[in-house]
Amino acid sequence: MKTLKLLIPLALAAGLSATPVGAQGRIGLLDQGHYVCALPGDATGSAWIEQEGKAFAITGGSSYRTDRGAGTYLLEGKQVTFTRGPLKGLTLLKLGSGLLQERGKDGKLSRLRCHRTGPLSN
After folding, report:
1. Are strands 109-118 and 33-40 parallel, antiparallel or unpaired?
2. Mean pLDDT per segment of 10 residues, for the chain of length 122 residues?
């Protein structure tokens, strides 16, 4: 009985340590459509300052396109990672339906936000 009491906590600890550190959750898809990325403005000017070269369109499956080409992304839980194409390496956090925020290489959230502006046009 004492052995069993010792083995249960050890088995639980082994199971927890086997979980990948980067695991975020279920794999999913972003809503299709056009996304514009911008920094917040200020009270003296525009509310948003759109960032050149950051806009993209989710086209279906795990695919996206930009003015510079197409690529793929991975949505794992709330984390979006662009894995191929012109935005490769960009990581975003899904805040809500159609709203994403950039996550820097240090893991901290930046001020850059991307929001869905509408459906894909034919």
Report:
1. antiparallel
2. 48 45 75 96 88 94 96 97 97 94 95 95 72
How many helices (H) and strands (E) are present in the chain, helices listed first?
A: 1, 10
Query: Could you tell me which residues are beta bridge partners of residue 99?
Result: 96, 115
Tokens encoding 59:
């086209």
Scanning the structure block, which residue is given the tokens 């898809």? 29
User: Residue 55 in contact with residue 34, Cβ under 8 Å?
Assistant: yes
Sign of the four-CA dihedral 35, 54, 28, 107 = negative
- Cβ proximity of 120 and 32 under 8 Å: yes
pTM: predicted TM-score of the whole model, two decimal places:
0.76
Contact 37, 114 (CB under 8 A): yes
The Cα 69–Cα 52 span in angstroms is 15
CB 99 within 8 A of CB 110: no
